[in-house]
Amino acid sequence: MNALAALGEALVLIGTFFYFLSALGLIRMPDVYNRMQTSTKSATLGSLGVLVGTGLWAVGDGLSWAWFVKATVIAVFLLLTNPISAHALIRAAYKSGIPLWQGSVVDKYREHIEAKASPGAAESESTEEGGEE
Amino acid sequence: MEEASNVSRYLYTLIVLFLIWLALTASLDPQELTFGLILSAIVAAITYPIFTTRGLANLHPKRVTYAIAYVPYFLWAMIMANLDVAYRVLHPKKPIRPGVVHCKTVLKTNPGKLSLANSITLTPGTITLDVDGDDYFIHWIWVPDEVLSAKSEEEHVERASENITRPFEKFLKVIFG
Q1: pTM (global) more than 0.90
Q2: CA distance B48 to B7
Q3: What span, in angstroms and rounded, lies between the C-alpha atoms of B103 and A90?
Q4: Which InterPro entries does the protein's record reference (chain B) (predicted)?
């Protein structure tokens, strides 16, 4: 047990705490957009903490530095790809007509889609119906 | 967007792939390095047309410095985002007031727009819903009063951009031109 291993253990603990928050956010938030919001951020930082923490922990326990380097590569990969998957999911949710929570205050995207579709009247009607379902 | 020569684009792809190989193997054995160089050369020859359009110009010292300075700035924003999420999730009253707002960006290149969208998704209270040219549509978990009370569309865009995109643009404008 040395300083590096202790730091690694602390990072893993912080990471799991953010995982817990992410799961709690899934239960507490009212609609898919807010759930996406809470779960993406916490899960990304939680994974970063756990991965980097595991790397440091292994180095502190006398294993080679390769552990830390590889764990960091995985962490960077996750950091770059997680927001893209969240964006794809939330956009697909909007396009398939899942409504915003009734407490939502503005929806500029609906206006934008309608303004774009207004030359063809039939298309604008269909997007509106999709949104109301 | 200026196009670099094929050689410069190829070399840039080779360098990036070789750096990834170095990190993945985490060893400096000459045998591994040689094989990594051969593999990077083959993969770079196949993928360089879709990987980059600017080639070695990406490695301009000013851009690299800004990119390195961006890392701690971004990580700090991300930690603040998670404390923000923790507050909203653990607070018994769930202080949320969500909405979709409209922002504009000054960035021109596609990689720049991608990293701005990624940064927005991972920072406090915002997630990118769609990007259409210069327009960003962002789901905000707590739309502040000054954006809500905006009279016109321009004012709304101006105030939302001030809050969401400006802090990152000053870095990303230099990194991605």
Answers
A1: no
A2: 10
A3: 17
A4: Cation_antiport_E
**SS3 state of residue B140:** strand
CA dist., res. B46 & res. B106, Å (int)? 33
Q: What are the boundaries of each domain within chain B?
A: 6-59, 66-176
Q: Do residue B98 and residue A33 have CB atoms under 8 angstroms apart?
A: yes
Cα separation, B128 vs A90, in Å, equals 8
Q: What is the pLDDT of residues B116-171, one digit of tens each?
A: 888 888 887 788 888 887 888 888 887 777 777 777 777 777 777 777 777 788 88
Cross-strand pairs, B135: B104, B132
Q: Domain ranges in chain A?
A: 3-122
Cα separation, B32 vs A19, whole angstroms: 37
pLDDT tens readout for residues B19-63: 999 988 888 889 989 999 999 999 999 988 888 777 777 788 888
Residues of A in contact with B78 (CB under 8 A): 41, 44-45
